[in-house]
Amino acid sequence: MNNTRFKYPDTAAYSFMIDALAKRGVTIDDICKISLNLSQEFFPEVTMKQVQAAAINVLHKREVMNNAMVGLELDRLATQGLLSEPLESIIMNDAGVFGVDEGLALSIANIYGTIGVTNYGFIDRNKTGIIKKLDQEKNGESNTFIDDIVGAIASAITAKIAHSMS
Ligand code: MG
Question: Going from the N-terminus, what domains does the chain have, and what CATH number goes with each?
Answer without folding.
Answer: 15-165 (1.10.3760.10)
